[in-house]
Design a protein that fits this description.
Layout: H1 2-25, H2 32-39, H3 44-56, H4 64-76, H5 80-92, H6 100-112, H7 116-128, H8 136-148, H9 152-164, H10 172-184, H11 190-200, H12 208-218, H13 224-236, H14 244-255, H15 261-272, H16 280-292, H17 298-308, H18 316-324, H19 330-342, H20 353-364, H21 370-386, H22 390-402, H23 410-421, H24 426-438, H25 446-457, H26 462-474, H27 482-494, H28 498-510, H29 518-530, H30 534-546, H31 554-566, H32 570-582, H33 590-601, H34 606-618, H35 626-637, H36 642-654, H37 662-673, H38 678-690, H39 698-710, E1 722-727, H40 729-733, E2 738-743, E3 755-763, E4 778-783, H41 785-790, E5 796-800, E6 809-821, E7 827-830, E8 834-840
Parallel strand pairs: 1-8
Antiparallel strand pairs: 1-2, 2-5, 3-4, 3-6, 6-7, 6-8
Length: 841
């Protein structure tokens, strides 16, 4: 048995050695002469090689005749490669003319011998009808054989045929199969095409996971764009689970090839904790990489991280250096203002945070990146504030205070300002004091407010010093004391605090705690106005309007009112409206008056709301509308403005803009009368005299008439009475249409007064107007005292009237008549519903 094993091993070794010797022995020479000798001895391989040399001209001159000779010998002995080549020789007509019959014979033999090249070429012959009838099915058969045998060209062709449906039924799945085989066969262009088909769902169900597999194969050659596509898919999580670490990996690859803005994207992912835990250290690293690559947008973020010590050691100098290099970004604007407010980094404390912030942010917020920056700012500040950083607590409280990057939230604002205030941040102490004082974000507590104001005042915060002055002036949280108020006002005013300067001026103007002194008041108003204080600017306007401390000058008054109104102060806007309505210091312009009244009304200035109602009532600067007038009267009346209550009552009394309702009229007259409105008292007296909306009572009527007279109502009782009216026939038809009206009242109070008379006429049988058009019959007549009284004869006055067209005879009517001072617009006298007869001859 042992001898048998040894013998077998010896046999194996000898066989192996003989094989090597045989291979070496039969290695064909490259010399054509030597090779031809071997081929002449019927060596199939030598014949193939020699034929190929002549066919391709390799090491010998190209000679298709000789190639044919030797290839045919090899092919006839069954060599499939020789069969393919001689078949191609005949097919291409290399011997002078194509011989399709011979070509097909040899190609078929080679194809049946599993030669993929022959199979492909045979498929082409059947497809094109070369030497045989076209046959797409047989063509597809041989193409398929070639593809299955690994021929890349065939695989690509088959993918294209199935994709387009050329000679076959369109089949994207089949096309994909051949594309994948071709890709596996080394075609590097196909992975991206296959990826696109899956990612876009081109003829197949969209499959992002499969698309990603092929994208990654396509990315093997380091294509930047493909790497970014992969990164974006993982970043967005569109069709696959969002995977930020994977996205970052691919973004890093692309960044190293030049896509440097990826560093900013990665940094922001870490900064905001977007799909990964917040990591300020990583955020700082990538912002720093971006900065080193020259991306200056990274500066503001680096400044933010240095300022609050997020991911890097806190370093205010470094923070300021970066933020000052990016002054137009929301992050830098905000933090530099924080530095201004708190006096950090050498900045001077300003204590005007809100105004400065809003002005500075107005331009910055126009940039598309601002909201993204502010979101990052908020997150970093929240982290720092929760870590106990008082600057961050103040800055975060201010964000909530102003509603920037967050919803405005007074409670949140107070929460963070209180945290900062407890760490001795004086602007936060003032804010907390205000919260307690106003009851906004905290329960009202004036004593607590004063406590925080004092803490801030001890740090020489002039806003706090002024607030203490206000507390003593009003007696809020302390005993009222004008002397203490003035002491604090003066201290803050000497430090250029405009609110204190204005308040000190008001003390001198009103004589509160000091001797009244308009000149001294004006001095402080001017100082405050020079510091941009809108209230002080309005107060200077009042001084010029009233002639207090200066000579009256309506032009100067209007100038100062305009300065203040442009800053948005509602009282000044109302005053500008008043100036335009009556032409004080400006050319009279009702449209401008309405514009300013409306601006003030939008800030709930009740006087402006009332006067806007008047504009609609009389049609000054707007289309006349009792309905709109009532709307504005009601707004002001419901908030206690007596003149609006009176006029709303009158609208109910007359049915102007509302349904006539004497009960409502009495209600509003009484509310106004209770506030000492003499005209409302008179109206209430009329209601009692005639029993309009109340039980008739002469005693009550007399009581209210007397109250009206005692409060300065010029007419008192019984008002204006009209005895009769007469339309002159001749005057009417000479185009001097008019009417004589006889009054029965003492009109001497009208002497020496520029008069405007307003008349409204109705038919006595209802609400029908005395006009052929059916429109409201009302008109104004303007008189100087002399012209009015020169027309007065036995108490008859002629009024021209161009719109009446009454029938001849007698018309029962009633009228409402008002007399106004045409300069001041003050109501001088008014009538009730006056019944009379108009006669036309």
């Amino acid at each position: 048995m042992k001898k048998l094993v040894i013998l077998s091993l010896t046999t194996l070794v000898l066989t192996f050695l003989l094989g090597i010797i045989k291979a070496q022995t039969y290695q064909l020479p490259n010399d054509p002469v030597a090779l031809e000798k071997i081929a002449s001895k019927n060596n199939v391989e030598a014949q193939l090689k020699l034929g190929k040399m002549y066919y391709f001209g390799e090491g010998i001159g190209m000679d298709f005749k000789k190639a044919e000779k030797w290839l045919k010998k090899s092919a006839d002995k069954g060599n499939k490669e020789a069969q393919y080549l001689i078949g191609k020789l005949y097919l291409d007509g290399d011997l002078g003319k194509a011989n399709y019959k011979k070509a097909i014979k040899y190609l078929t033999e080679s194809a049946n011998n599993d030669n993929p090249n022959a199979q492909y070429l045979l498929g082409a012959c059947y497809a094109k009808g070369l030497g045989l009838d076209p046959n797409p099915k047989i063509s597809l058969y041989w193409y398929t054989k070639a593809g299955e045998n690994g021929m890349l060209k065939a695989q690509l062709l088959l993918a294209d045929l199935y994709a387009k449906g050329t000679g076959v039924d369109k089949n994207i799945d089949k096309s994909l199969e051949w594309m994948k085989m071709a890709a596996d066969n080394g075609d590097s262009s196909l992975p991206i095409k296959i990826a696109d088909i899956y990612l876009e769902g081109k003829g197949v169900e969209k499959n992002v996971v499969e698309g990603l597999i092929w994208l990654k194969r396509a990315a093997a050659d380091g294509n930047l764009e493909i790497e970014m596509r992969i990164a974006d898919i993982y970043l967005d999580g569109n069709g696959v689970e969002r995977n930020i670490p994977e996205a970052i990996e691919w973004m890093n690859k692309a960044a190293q090839k030049g896509k440097i803005d990826n560093y900013m994207t990665i940094a922001n992912l870490y900064l905001n904790g977007d799909g990964i835990p917040v990591d300020y250290t990583e955020a700082f690293k990538y912002f720093n990489k971006a900065r080193q690559e020259g991306i200056i947008q990274a500066d503001c973020y680096l400044g933010l991280l240095y300022m609050y010590g997020a991911g890097v050691e806190n370093n205010l100098n470094q923070a300021l250096a970066y933020m000052q290099r990016s002054p137009d970004t929301a992050i830098s604007v905000y933090n530099l203002l924080i530095c201004n407010e708190l006096g950090l980094g050498g900045y001077e404390k300003k204590y005007f945070f809100e105004d400065d912030y809003l002005k500075a942010m107005e331009q910055t917020m126009k940039y598309p990146s601002s909201q993204k920056e502010l979101t990052a700012l908020k997150k970093v500040m929240e982290w720092a504030a929760n870590s106990g950083n008082p600057v961050a607590q103040f800055a975060l409280g201010s964000l909530y205070q102003l509603g920037i990057a967050v919803e405005k939230n007074v409670k949140e604002s107070v929460y963070w300002h209180l945290k900062a205030a407890e760490q001795n941040i004086s602007p936060s102490q003032v804010y907390v004091g205000d919260a307690y004082s106003l009851g906004e974000g905290a329960e009202e507590n004036q004593t607590e407010a004063v406590k925080w104001y004092r803490l801030a005042a001890e740090q020489n915060n002039m806003m706090a010093v002024t607030a203490l002055g206000n507390a003593y002036y009003n007696g809020d949280g302390v005993t009222k004391n004008f002397d203490e108020a003035i002491k604090y006002y003066r201290k803050a005013a000497d430090h250029n605090n405009s609110e204190a300067q204005n308040n000190l001026g008001e003390c001198y103007y009103n004589g509160d705690g000091v001797t009244k002194n308009y000149s001294e008041a004006l001095k402080w108003f001017r100082l405050a106005a020079d510091n941009g204080n809108a209230i002080a600017q309005n107060n200077i306007g009042d001084c010029y309007f009233e002639g207090n401390g200066v000579k009256p000058d309506m032009n100067e008054a209007a100038k100062w009112y305009r300065l203040s109104a442009t800053e948005g102060y509602d009282e000044a806007q109302y005053n500008m409206g008043h100036c335009y309505e009556y032409g004080y210091g400006v050319e009279q312009n009702y449209q401008e008056a309405v514009k300013w009244y409306r601006l003030a009304a939008e800030q709930n200035n009740l006087d402006a709301i009332k006067d806007l109602g008047d504009c609609y009532y009389y049609g000054h600067g707007v289309p006349q509308s009792y309905g709109e007038a009532v709307k504005y009267y009601r707004l002001a009346a419901e908030q206690g403005i007596s003149s609006a209550q009176r006029d709303l009552g009158y609208c109910y009394y007359m049915g102007y803009g509302v349904t006539e309702n004497n009960n409502e009229a009495v209600k509003w007259f009484r509310l106004a009368a209770d506030q000492d409105d003499e005209s409302a008292m008179y109206r209430l007296g009329k209601c009692y005299e005639y029993g309009y909306g109340v039980a008739q009572s002469d005693a009550e009527a007399k009581k209210w008439y007397q109250k009206a007279a005692q409060n300065g109502y010029e007419m008192g009782s019984p008002g204006i009475e009209i005895k009769s009216a007469y339309i002159d026939h001749n005057l009417y038809y000479n185009n001097k249409k008019g009417m004589y009206i006889r009054f029965d009242f003492d009109a001497n109070f009208l002497k020496d007064t520029p008069i405007r008379c307003y008349i409204c006429l109705y038919k006595a049988n209802g609400r029908e107007m005395l006009s052929t058009s059916g429109g409201l019959v009302n008109f104004y007549e303007y008189y100087t005292p002399s012209s009015f009284f020169s027309s007065w004869s036995d108490q008859w006055v002629f009024f021209s009237y161009k719109f009446m067209n009454l029938p001849r005879g007698k018309t029962e009517a009633y009228a409402i008549i008002r007399f106004y001072n045409d300069k001041t617009n003050k109501l001088l006298a008014t009538s009730d519903k006056i019944n009379f007869t108009i006669t036309k001859n």
